[in-house]
Amino acid sequence: MYPLTCPNCGNVNRPTDTYCPRCNATLRPKSSMKGLWFLIIPVGILVLAVGAYIRNDSKLREARRQEEKRREDNYVRINPSIRVTEAGVIATNNEDYTYPRFTVILNPNGSSGGFSAEYGDLGPGKTAVIPFSKFANADGRRFNISTNRINQLSARAWPNGLQSTHTFDFKEN
Ligand SMILES: [Zn+2]
After folding, report:
1. In angstroms, what CA-CA distances link 168 with 21, 86, 141, 165, 171?
2. 166 CA distance to ligand 1 centroid (A)?
3. How far is the centre of ligand 1, averaged over its atoms, from the C-alpha of 16 (Å)?
4. N or C: which terminus of the chain has fewer CB atoms within 10 Å of its end residue's CB?
5. CA of 26 to the centre of ligand 1 (A)
6. Mean pLDDT of 109-122
7. Residue 173 pLDDT more than 60?
């Protein structure tokens, strides 16, 4: 749309005139800025949203990095002694710190998903005797030493709040 009134001489033109027929001035189309707002507003919102997302994402990444560092700084690998006897699993904490929530899992990678027993906190130098009757799988099925063989055993604890697992393999014989 071109201005009806010529800005130069004030002549009233037709809306389609690009030149004023009276003074020959160039008639510039009316500002299309009004129309542009429909574009500028969504683009602006998009830019703000992307900016907020990027800020949030870098914050998340920083938090993840710090969590990883905390883990690296605090991770300790538990190294208990394990014996399997008729009485059950006998585990000794060889470290000078407590094994919090000390847990033993029989055949952790087995088809039954492993049979686990949580002993509780196992102090430094202490020995835990965990009878087989304490071991159960996710379905609540008990471990039966006379029908199940132990191929693998995992000892697990949460020193510094971080899960630490030590897995022992038992050779077939
Ligand atoms: Zn004119």
Report:
1. 98, 18, 22, 10, 10
2. 92
3. 14
4. C
5. 8
6. 91
7. no
Reply yes or no on whether the pLDDT at 114 is more than 90. yes
Q: pLDDT confidence of 135, banded at 50, 70, 90?
A: very high
Which residue segments constitute the domains of the chain, with CATH numbers given?
A: 81-169 (2.60.40)
Higher pLDDT, 145 or 154: 154
Contact 91, 157 (CB under 8 A): no
CA–CA separation, 33 vs 169, rounded Å? 75
Question: 13 C-alpha vs ligand 1 centroid, how far in Å?
Answer: 8
CA of 36 to the centre of ligand 1 (A): 28
Ion ligand 1 residues within 5 Å by Cβ: 6, 8-9, 11, 20, 22-23, 25
Average pLDDT rounded to a whole number, residues 76-81: 93
For 8-23, write each residue's pLDDT tens digit. Answer: 999 998 888 889 999 9
Q: What are phi and psi of 74, to 5 degrees?
A: -105, -5
Bridge pairing between strands 127-130 and 88-92: antiparallel
How long is the chain?
Answer: 173
Q: In 3D, which of 70, 128, 71 has the Cα closest to residue 99? A: 128
Average pLDDT, integer, range 137-159: 92
Query: Cα of 30 to ligand 1 centre, how many Å?
Result: 16
* Nearest by Cα to 142 from 115, 104, 119, 120: 115
